[in-house]
Amino acid sequence: MDKNANTTPAQALPMDDLRTGDILLMLGEGPLSDLIAWASDGPYSHAAVVADGGDLIEAAASGVRRYPLAQRIADQVNYHFIDAYRMHGANDGPLDAADLADVLAKAESLLGIPYPIDQLALLGAIMAVRGKWPEHPWARLLVRVALDHALPDATDGMVCSEVVYRAYAECAATPAGRLAPEIVVGERGTAPFPEIDWKALFDEIWPLLKPGGRQALQSPQRQLNALRSSDIAGLDIASASAPDVSDEELERARQAVLGRLGAGAAVAARESDALLAGEGPVDPKPNPRLVSPQDLAASPSVALLGRLMQRPGG
């Protein structure tokens, strides 16, 4: 994928122009981030919200946390670019101080949630909404595993964009839900499947996998470990021997995720399918678990401020 791409050209934005409540959307380094961006038909793989004290709030491997904003903007190793968006208030004006305080208070209430949902689960959640199945045999197997990985469990874990959405949608502003970003599912994209370094991808996701996922992907991992990265012919032969994962199997796994998330999620997915086919509107109250970084970027409730960081050369 084009790591310089964005739906709207973004001008450079100084960090000092940010304020509490601004939404930060970024593309992380690595093949899993590329897959998340491809699946959601956008350029982003991660989301955070600007807090006070020079921090942002985000879901990370250690839990929902504060993190120094300046340190993130300077991190050109783990991120390709970072864009900033701002929520509209009444009549497209800025939110007032009381609203922003409510958003920050809600975001802070999520701090320390011990079991954040990782990026593989985010990929599964996006695939559950989009129903966008790749053709590559290993990619189909990976999506099948990601859908299982996205099944809700008994923890309070959440995906990165869910933290941002809930900070607005569930804050104390009245009436309840007044600040919820409007989520509109756009047309299903036609971008080609990204070029993937399969060895790097398996190395990235292996620590995230549950036992069933490791078992499902064990054979491809062994085949990859036996090949040199440059052995393209060998990779093609190895991937051709992957177990067949049908569209029907992927759809069943998709519906299992939506069913576990409740009837509202299933209705939202049906309406999203209709919109993707050009047939109808989306659910105005999406399940927060199914909100992606690109959903936040495409929301009519936000405006692009600019680009905080761009890695030289992409």
TrEMBL record:
InterPro entries on file:
Papain-like_cys_pep_sf
The source's domain of life comes to Bacteria
Q: Where are the stretches annotated Disordered?
A: 277-296
Q: What is this protein called?
A: Uncharacterized protein
User: What is the scientific name of the source organism?
Assistant: Luteimonas marina
